[in-house]
Amino acid sequence: MKKDQIKKVVLAYSGGLDTSVILKWLQEAYGCEVVTFTADLGQGEELGPARKKAEMLGIKPENIFIEDLREEFVRDYVFPMFRANALYEGLYLLGTSIARPLIAKKQIEIAGKTGADAVAHGATGKGNDQVRFELGYYALKPDIHVIAPWREWDLDSRTKLIDFAEKHQIPIAKDKRGEAPFSVDANLLHSSSEGKVLEDPAVEADSIVYQRTIGPEEAPDKPTYVEIGFERGDAVSIDGQKMSPATLLAKLNELGKANGIGRLDLVENRFVGMKSRGVYETPGGTILLAAHRGIESITLDRGAAHLKDELMPKYAELVYYGFWFAPEREMLQALIDKSQEYVSGTVRVKLYKGNATVVGRESPYSLYRQDYVTFEKDSVYDQKDAQGFIKLNALRLRLLAARNQSTKR
Prior knowledge:
- The structure is a single chain.
- This protein is α/β, with parallel strands linked by helices.
- The chain has three domains: 3-69 and 98-180, 3-Layer(aba) Sandwich (Rossmann fold); 185-362, Argininosuccinate synthetase, chain A, domain 2 (Alpha-Beta Complex); 372-406, no CATH class.
- The protein contains 13 helices and 14 strands.
- A five-stranded parallel β-sheet has the order 3-2-1-4-5, sandwiched between helices. A five-stranded antiparallel β-sheet has the order 10-9-8-13-14. The protein has a four-stranded antiparallel β-sheet with strand order 6-7-12-11, with no helix packed on it.
- A hairpin with a 5-residue loop joins strand 11 and strand 12 (275-281).
- The protein is elongated and about 85 Å long.
């Protein structure tokens, strides 16, 4: 689709400097009507100013969309991912990755409501987010036109962005005039800090980078205990009190923050090919992962548990790369959800100086049988049976060893 054919575009809009410049640039470069979409994913920012700034930049009130997506985000995206115990490269809880498909979905929905023929995002041409947004767009509306300003314009420095903003009378916050020490992305699951002072992976991150957790060394000397209730793999209560998904995660965030839990300094492999260093804070998610694995430990059969662990890296990779709406992710999700039918019960977690440790777990569907595992005398397990079991499993090893000893090379 040619520029002059685009009449209306839905922009993922935060109200910050970058997306405000993008908004004005779209009006100038494409001569089109702009619809703004701002998602409340629990980033902890006041969203009212985003509406006011959009109006100031000439956006009609009916073309300004601000939605509170916190419950949908946790219920339909975060929780399904946590049923899989997903960790990218064994460590990263995918806080940024999991938010992108929801934003993309809402942009496509708004495009349908407003008759827009294009969508736009503010992700740069070096990162993963451009891929995540656009894979989501195309999966949901294959003929949509996508505008990615960072791949088109010549505003390739902070100075040029600020000059453009001043020229078009776009308000600039005082803290945005200088060079930002690092960039931050946040939602209810986590905060992510990257770039600038964090680009050298040999240098420890300064304490100013951390916004959602206190340092473990500053945490209380007394542990905090929390009981998390699960139903079919999803957390539903804290200390016996039923909570909605977003409310529950917010409460776990509070507990994690106060106990210095959830910090991660990671060098990861981006989908686009380069390595990057990020500092992540996922306080509630770190507790939730420990608790979920705790309840699975007594309710999942060994075969099911091990198969899940084998599939988890693939699932995490699909989320990280942006293939949330791909059939293979949905197929894996169906398998994972099947495994969670009996993952219900209560887990007790000890929070202490950066650690979330499972110290108790119980379930009406527990497969743990004390009468089988006891070291005391029992009447349900004949230890003599182990001899045949071992010999059968050792048979191939014995045959292999015998052959090797008789034909040494």
